[in-house]
């Protein structure tokens, strides 16, 4: 195919490719590393002195630690939560549920046994994988070919199938891009999509034990993230005297009316509501991940230009 | 159409398939090596031991298994009767059970998440054995699966300190009836679970937990229990490897990695000898001092020094092994390593390495190598592999495999085919090539000329369309998909950013669309329920993330959607609302008005998923009324794993929300031909009509296409029986 492109053009293209590898990529990698570090710090943010030493208190402490969670225009739920890193370390929630057996009650989460927000933990882990990958590549930064760069990016954002070429790099694959599942994109997805946990799994998972002195048997509470918002879902249940005749098709958006078997008892979900609050550092993290993703994609797009360079 | 009588013949072409190995294992009997590639293929290699100690590796099969990177492999069973079954896990959560003897997929399942490793073990239930698999990855639980059904039996979790598992191993403690899992989490917690044979609860909690202080700051990449004494545990981290006493988890020793190298994994080779491999594909053999080998009585007590030998591939030794120097220069990134200690037969200790260039290397660790280790010498060149092999080696032989139209241009080298399209109605194949030419030729005549005639005896009449500069990347014959398109229209997209419209019968270039600013990635037809104007269009996607609707009759681009910041992943239609819905890899969704070209909305997160799901609902209801759309031509089906828009596999994020996910996942493995043999299962359903069909596939994205010719013997016999007078064959 080289015959069809002018020789002069090819020469220039080669030079540009070399520049990209020698000058541009290390710069972008450094920038990428910085963004990812910043984001990771932001996600891990905790008010606890993380290193133990008095001087080393990480980040600006405490300003946005506590968040109000309450139902608007009613006192069904009133309370606050403290979010540190991936944990809900403290919570004080007052319920007045008309449908539940004990209508008014109050539960706490204490620092000893925090509620783990898996979505944040997963995001942190994905970020860490991405950081490691960037560091690794920066460390042996003498790219003899574009392959290593493309491979790194491949692991970092959705990309695909590796070609064993010496020169040609970014196999910006149409099929590979179809899988939104590399570290950064995965991390972002994890944060931006709320967990779709069935109520049965919420009961089984042992998470409910975090609430002290314990929720009534017919109430289930569950924390999850939806983008930058912390969402608390409350379900109330009733025990059915007989197993249901026809199990209702579980509908995605409306859990009310679903039935399931738990502890050899059949339960039906009678009501469901959600309260949420915005957590500023999460929206910051989302922005940072987005920026890192874009940076990666831009570098990848630049590589794509050079796919016309002869490979063999 | 019967499936049993179809004989596939693979025309590999003159270029060997790329096979970037991401994981590697051997079967228990050490007769077969299985490799998984980043493109989702599984390589099956025979390992043959000659009597004189020589080892040969012979590539046997290439299974088109997954549509994503293979992340883990495990043996499914080691029973005498079924030694060849393998379980593979892919990046998109697919799990498949394979019979490596004939390349058939026995079972599939999808478990959300990226699975890092699979570890197989067995439990005794009554008098029988049941095989199970431990599976962990980008989630905080460990799944225990049934090795045959691939269903989750129960989940291991640690309620007090949940985090992802970074390394785990399965061991059977001495005089115990059941195995245990020893796992280290990302935060450095070590947990031990008993693997109970009976499944009484969905969740199982650890019986032992301890924080490994030395591991907390770096991630463990491997863990291994000394199988010889069962008294020590090896934990490999990126910067150092550590040995613990298995009894009380007392820290015994740590050895850091060579400068600027990270450890990747390791294993015990002997009671007092460990083999640790680093990320650059070198392995280091260490003899442990007696202090670090509790439970092992050695004659040479009092040695406190580490000794080691390096097993590596130095540049020189590699060059000796390989005929072609240029391959030696290609560095190996992220090799996959595996240590295999034969439980039966010859009891070989083998170290395997799979490289990103598709090569498999084997070292045999003889006992004298273990005993004769000497103090580390920085200048030591190391020991080269005993044998190394890659698919490319098969191409180095005298009879290079050929492609379908390789000898078309008799002069010089064959031009690789970069995109091809088989038109069953005309029995012709359209091949776009690397140099920009498009060849249209009768498939049957091409096969005759390529395979049966002597080279140089001339080619049948064919048509060459010249116009593209650079590679032809995609082809579309819209009339084959929907009869509303004109019969003569053939559309091609190229690396030169242009979409060209051809008259397939005359060979004329009708029009060139210069709409995009990037290499064309795919061309698709518009759905039949769109407005009349859009119905005569095709949809094109380019590498600059733009989507265009190109009017074939109008010779005009009627819409260009081009501000997507990320690659286009899915395209869906809400034809009745006149909306084109574009899903991007970052999870954002753009809704475009087709008639006006306005961007209606741009959303992300849950709303984006809802919009995509809503499009599917409309599609479902519309296909229900138009059942004739079930046109599953060969090309279509195989295109799931090649270059066109993979609607089913693409929307991985959407997948988990959709109830049809299982069905879809099972689709992609079923479209996995085993290319190297005579097994014809799975082809029959997509065959119709004449005795000869061609389908094509690719190993890697930039690889040339591989053509698979399928002779339907039954159809051939039918044709011969009915053929009293010569039929008019195009």
TrEMBL record, chain A:
It comes from the Eukaryota. Signal peptide: none annotated. One of its GO terms (cellular component) is RAVE complex. InterPro entries: RAVE2/Rogdi. Belongs to the rogdi family. PANTHER family: LEUCINE ZIPPER CONTAINING TRANSCRIPTION FACTOR LZF1 (PTHR13618), PROTEIN ROGDI HOMOLOG (PTHR13618:SF1). This is Protein rogdi homolog.
Automatic annotation (TrEMBL), chain B:
Residues 656-680 are annotated as: Disordered. GO terms for cellular component: cytoplasm. InterPro entries: Quinoprotein_ADH-like_sf (IPR011047), WD40/YVTN_repeat-like_dom_sf (IPR015943), WD40_PAC1 (IPR020472), WD40_repeat_CS (IPR019775), WD40_rpt (IPR001680), WDR72-like (IPR049916). Residues 660-672 have a biased composition (Low complexity). It comes from the Eukaryota. WD repeats lie at residues 33-48, 465-512, 561-602. Keywords: Repeat, WD repeat. PANTHER family: RABCONNECTIN-3B, ISOFORM A (PTHR44099:SF4). This is WD repeat-containing protein 7.
